[in-house]
């Protein structure tokens, strides 16, 4: 038996070598708690998972980190999967979102297509945007999972992305569960609801070769956002598993000053 002495003011994140969330199996690729009181920035608490690289200087509050796309973000080692679930607690309080000035929560948008490196993939993105691309606001959350026909030589424009839904209130912290496979996309946002979308028949996932970024796209956008935690699974979680994760995270963050 080993006895460990730990300061009463130490956080478990900064002293742990890993973390087993309520839903834990080999599909868990990444788990980050973010913030000045949440251990080293970029530390991957998924057991056996590689840490994320800190790019730039994300600002740290006690229990969340602030990111700017293409400037200050986390570069993960997690590759986009054809089947996945993203869990996040995030918000964007940015007041002006016009053109390319969009906040990005997680993405590999505009990286080389894994099936043909000479082409660009739209990949997958979870980002905040406006209804018409012009009117500034902070109310719309878009989940974008690109599909294409799989044909060699298909242009970037042949890729197809789907905005599943637009939810209000992303200016405050929300629990977000975004999942997709070859047939269906779904997104759930605390306090707003759940939506699903069926991918068009005959298309395949347009997978980008660049690993996923947290707080940034690969070659696009420049918006800012705040993220408290991120979990990435290489499978689609069930509704019951998402419920279980939400209940845990809601209680966990309520004790730490973030209400979801």
Automatic annotation (TrEMBL):
The name this protein goes by in its record: LamG domain-containing protein
Domain of life: Bacteria
Matching Gene3D superfamilies: 2.60.120.200
Lineage: Bacteria, Pseudomonadati, Pseudomonadota, Betaproteobacteria, Burkholderiales
Species whose genome carries this gene: Burkholderia aenigmatica
């Amino acid at each position: 038996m080993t006895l460990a002495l730990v300061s009463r003011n130490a956080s478990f994140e900064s002293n742990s070598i890993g973390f087993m969330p309520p839903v834990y199996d080999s599909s868990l690729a990444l788990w980050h708690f973010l913030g000045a009181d949440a251990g080293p920035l970029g530390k991957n608490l998924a057991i056996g998972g590689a840490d994320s690289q800190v790019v730039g200087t994300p600002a740290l509050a006690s229990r969340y980190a602030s990111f700017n796309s293409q400037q200050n973000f986390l570069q993960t080692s997690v590759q986009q999967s054809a089947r996945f679930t993203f869990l996040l607690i995030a918000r964007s309080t940015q007041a002006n979102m016009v053109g390319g000035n969009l906040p990005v929560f997680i993405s590999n948008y505009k990286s080389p297509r894994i099936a043909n490196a000479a082409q660009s993939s739209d990949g997958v993105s979870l980002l905040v945007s406006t209804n018409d691309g012009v009117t500034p606001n902070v109310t719309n959350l878009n989940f974008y999972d690109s599909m294409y026909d799989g044909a060699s030589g298909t242009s970037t424009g042949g890729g197809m992305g789907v905005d599943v839904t637009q939810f209000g209130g992303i200016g405050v912290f929300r629990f977000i569960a975004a999942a997709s496979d070859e047939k269906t996309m779904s997104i759930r946002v605390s306090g707003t609801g759940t939506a699903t979308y069926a991918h068009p028949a005959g298309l395949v996932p347009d997978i980008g070769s660049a690993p996923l970024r947290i707080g940034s796209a690969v070659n696009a956008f420049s918006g800012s956002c705040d993220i408290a935690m991120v979990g990435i699974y290489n499978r689609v979680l069930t509704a019951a598993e998402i419920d279980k994760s939400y209940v845990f995270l809601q209680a966990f963050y309520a004790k730490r000053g973030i209400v979801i």
